[in-house]
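Journal club prep — side note

Before the paper discussion, L.F. wants everyone to see what a predicted structure for a comparable chain looks like in token form. Sequence:
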Amino acid sequence: MKSFPVVLISAACLGAAACAKTTAPPLGFPTPATSTMSGQGVLSTDGGLARKEVAAKEEPATLVAADRTRCMVSADRFKNASVGSREICNWRMGGRAP
């Protein structure tokens, strides 16, 4: 009967390990956005943080990418960004800023 406790302990350990493995990310962490690569930078399906080439600038503080996503930035960052530079920003779809 010494083998029964060993089997029971082994089964308990395997069961706990199987329960611990999940496909969901831990709570509190964002899930990654799906994206594709192109010559213009990272094109995210839902907007968000990405590096894109600035195609235009709109006063007072909006950068516009080639895919028409926009990013509002501080006055200093707007002044320092130039058309053609690649900027990491929270790019969003939408109309012209008010």
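L.F.'s comment for the group: The first helix runs from residue 3 to 20. Keep this in mind when we get to the figures.
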